[in-house]
Amino acid sequence: MAFEGLTEKISNTFKKLKSRGRLTEADIKDAMREIRLALLEADVNFKVTKDFVKSVTEKAVGADILESLSPAQQVIKIVNDELTALLGGQNARLMIAPNPPTVVMMVGLQGAGKTTNCAKLAGLFKKQQQRRPLLVACDVYRPAAIEQLKVVGSQLGITVFEMGQGDPIEIAKAGVDYARKNGHDLVFIDTAGRLHIDEALMDELKQIKKTVKPHEIMLVVDAMTGQDAVNVAQTFDEALGIDGVLMSKMDGDARGGAALSVKAVTGKPIKYIGTGEKLDNIEQFHPDRMASRILGMGDMLTLIEKAQETFDQKQAAEAAKKLSVGKLTLTDFYQQLQQMKNMGSMKDILGMLPGVDANALAGAKIDEKALAHTEAIIQSMTPKERDNPSIINYSRKKRIAAGCGLKIEEINRLLKQFEAMQKMTRQIVGMQKRGKRKKRGFPSLGNFKLPF
Fold first, then answer.
1. What is the dihedral of CA 421, 425, 426, 432, to 10 degrees?
2. What pTM was computed for the model?
3. Are 10 and 296 in contact (CB under 8 A)?
């Protein structure tokens, strides 16, 4: 994920500050020098870095900070506040028109992920706000661009309007008319890109803008291109007048310099970020939450939101009820695994917890393959076997092993671990019923571990 190197360096700087107790002006200046180097190594714009360090230093060397009871914490708060401001301060949302449809023109260079993120953004609004988006295919030059949009649109259940390799300006106009007539309240126009900015590209985009009068022009830039992404944003804004940025491939950029520079250089906010290859790997950009992640403080709000979006409340209530009486089944366990999987990788989830930094996770053994094996085994069982694993004899195990392509030993391991979990659950429930939980504590887990 982005900012891994920066987070590590800033966290180490803060540890040094905390260990010193009382701080002097020299201590703060030494810390700011380290942060300045960390920002430059993260490919943050030089002028942005210079202004950021100057602002933090001026606020941190004040007498009220140096003489406070916890000066290190005060400095950390100042850095957090300034970082949030650097990233944009307030959340910036897509502007929704009072009279539908809202027209969003997606622009950017080839290779930035414009077509995919166009569909991702439409899918996000469909899922979160129950909108009826329409995707309009205006990239008539890149081979298979229209087909790509149709494929991702189909996967998300979103209508795609296309007129083949025609005039993109006429297609954009016809697409908006189609949306108006067919009750679509959001229109995302996927425009053509180039390998570099040229006059022909800008003239076409200006003509589309003049014809359809979009409510929002969203620029898609590749976070992995660093300062080039900032330069692209600046050029597009000067020529076209963008309203916001969608930063793609944030999961692949360990430095994060583009995200920290784009708002300060262009004045345009980052509104959304692409966080992976899957079509639901997109999220709204929150400057305060991103600042918290950079400083190693986690991002509990985003984690909670992901859980709320992913977990079925009814299923969760039923599972809790079964757990309270010690009757959790493999069916329930499988449903919980599926919902956890939909939240993203275990590394991403743990990375949002306060105090868990990406560097520490690098050596952690989060076996996603074992999780997939567990799912495959449970899927190969009949509903009766999932609800009552005790009936699974040797012949049933052979059938399950053949169904999931794994060895019988792995089936046995899962069943033993699940049996241990059930036993532990019954013990806890029994202790709660007898009112002896405080006296005896939790039962020993022995060698039990989760089956993934």
1. 160
2. 0.67
3. yes
